[in-house]
Design a protein that fits this description.
This protein has 537 residues and is an alpha+beta fold. The chain contains 16 helices and 19 strands. A hairpin with a 4-residue loop joins strand 12 and strand 13. The longest helix is centred in the first third of the chain and has 19 residues.
């Protein structure tokens, strides 16, 4: 044993990492108790003394062999290490090899792993009935979640061990205001949204959850090579130019140092990312997502629920995006007739952090599914939607998945709208220096008045949505966000908005809309629930 300890100190004094050397000893000890001959562990890792040796190596007390490391001692240490390794390697068969980089020992049964698993289980199992933060400092929001984790930890019999400790890292901004409203949400989701809104992230450790700034490293990055189909770059139908964009659109996140490279010649996808995100990529590829990705059952149910809620009318005039989100969330609760449990009614709606929170929205719709209303709201605010299992997030540049199995229904609604455009005839139309929003409001109202073929009065006419491509920003003097009013564009107050001069008689709504759009440099698209007017490319 003393001979082995002397070898250890010679290696450490030569300048080698004590942690890596201890890790190597653990690996060699593991080999020594395997079927490989005993001589491979001689003088390297005798199982009877390995614990004492590692304790000594990692002990921070003054070493027995102290003093300045000279070139001679360093070379001597290298020679010792090579000799030690040579003895160990001699016991291997030809097909065995030692990894070039010595990884830190990992045992899935260690107390640390068990502690992490226990906390992760609590995060998933604890459900919070209601979360409502209004410009709440991050530290206070985290304190609320920690207290709720204690109050609602029904599976832990020991009162002293109930709940989860949530620690705010010293570098994280504890004063960041959080505005979030959610109901019946798992603790892990509430924590995720809270940290996202603070531009932070959380890391589960054996004894607590630590909140870190986004630049803090939390997980080791791994590199995987996937063999994919030649159509990989077409996943999701987005006009993506890089593999990173394709995977980001599919919901994969990349931390600092992460990457994705696609080799068209070999159809290989090389990804460097965290373990959980690599598993997500594997799931996407295994599901055949380059053809048509299979949808998670919980996501499918949530999407169906969003589309099942129909809003009789939406009229937002200079509505701050936060107030618009609150309006949609409140209406989703009131109109969720399919959910029998009052505590589960409605949809959680979250507005992402960043500049989108300064946007205001102008939107007028009738008889529209909640999902469509949210999509238009996000687009008018200059962002997109992200649909999770527990909430809809406004402000991400990602498309909202369409309702599963709804393509045929969507096509039928588009055809019905196209029929209305061509069958409704306007007897007389005259615009004289008319602002585009006013012209569209006139056409929308005439579509209601002249829709004689629609027996249901609540479904008469067409919804027009104007997207100028320039999200309007909130002003300090913004008025009542949900007050009534006319059709508006959300154009940001640009005084150079186009005006329309047009005089027509006995003309179809389709033709009138086309000429109006042409004069304004716009075009229209017929969608299932609306007519979208946007700038020409």
């Amino acid at each position: 044993q003393h001979r082995e300890e002397a070898c250890d100190w010679r290696v450490i004094d030569a300048g080698f990492s004590s942690e890596n050397y201890a890790a190597m000893l653990f690996r060699q000890a593991k080999i020594s108790v395997s079927p490989i001959p005993r001589n491979c562990a001689t003088a390297v890792a005798e199982t009877g003394t390995i614990e004492n040796r590692v304790k000594m190596i990692l002990n921070e007390s003054p070493r027995i062999l102290s003093g300045k490391v000279t070139l001679v001692s360093r070379l001597s240490g290298i020679a010792t290490l090579l000799a030690v390794l040579a003895i160990g390697i001699s016991g291997f068969s030809d097909n065995e090899a030692i990894a070039a980089d010595v990884a830190e020992p990992s045992n899935p049964g260690t107390p640390a792993d068990e502690g992490i698993a226990a906390i992760e289980q609590k995060l998933k199992n604890i459900s919070i009935p209601s979360v409502e933060f209004s410009k709440t400092p991050l530290r206070n929001a985290l304190a609320f979640l920690q207290q709720k984790s204690v109050d609602l930890d029904a599976t832990e019999p020991d009162p002293a061990r109930k709940g989860i400790d949530i620690i705010l890292d010293a570098d994280a901004a504890g004063d960041t205001p959080i505005t979030l409203r959610m109901t019946k949400v798992p603790l892990i989701e509430a924590l995720r949204y809270t940290t996202e809104l603070a531009d932070s992230k959380y890391k589960v450790e054996p004894k607590a959850v630590v909140i870190l700034i986004l630049t803090s490293p939390t997980a080791e990055l791994y590199t995987n090579v996937f063999q994919v189909s030649p159509t990989f770059m077409n996943i999701g139908g987005h006009d993506a130019k890089t593999a990173l964009e394709v995977l980001t659109h599919a919901g994969v996140t990349f931390p600092q140092g992460g990457s994705a490279i696609y080799n068209r010649e070999t159809s290989q996808l090389i990804v460097r990312n965290t373990e959980d995100q690599i598993e997500l990529i594997e799931a996407l590829l295994d599901s055949g997502s380059d053809q048509a990705a299979a949808m998670d059952p919980e996501m499918e149910a949530y999407l169906r629920r969003i589309e099942s809620i129909t809003l009789p009318s939406v009229e937002l005039v200079d509505a701050p995006i936060m107030d618009a989100a609150a309006f949609f969330q409140r209406r989703s609760v009131e109109l969720d007739v399919d959910e029998p449990d009052p505590a589960k009614k409605g949809i959680n709606i979250v507005v992402a952090s960043g500049g989108i929170r300064d946007a205001v929205v102008n939107l007028k719709l009738t008889d529209v599914p909640l999902g469509e209303a949210l999509r238009y709201t996000a687009e008018l605010a200059g962002g997109g939607l992200r649909v999770d299992e527990s909430a809809v997030v406004i402000g991400y540049d990602k498309s909202t998945p369409r309702s599963p199995g709804g393509l045929a229904a969507a096509k039928a609604k588009i055809e019905a709208n196209e029929k209305k455009l061509t069958s409704i005839v306007i007897p007389h139309l005259e615009f004289v220096e008319t602002a585009l929003p006013d012209a569209l409001e006139f056409l929308q109202q005439r579509s209601v008045d002249l829709d004689i073929n629609e027996p249901d009065t609540s479904k008469k006419g067409l919804n027009f949505v104007l997207d100028t491509g320039r999200p309007k920003k909130r002003e300090a003097s913004a008025g009542d966000p949900l007050a009534g009013g006319g059709f508006d564009s959300g154009s940001g107050g640009d005084t150079r908005e186009p005006t329309i001069d047009l005089k027509l008689s006995n003309i179809t709504l389709a033709a009138a809309l086309k000429y109006t759009c042409d004069l304004a440099g716009m075009e229209y698209i017929v969608e299932p629930h609306n007519i979208l007017i946007h700038p020409k490319p």
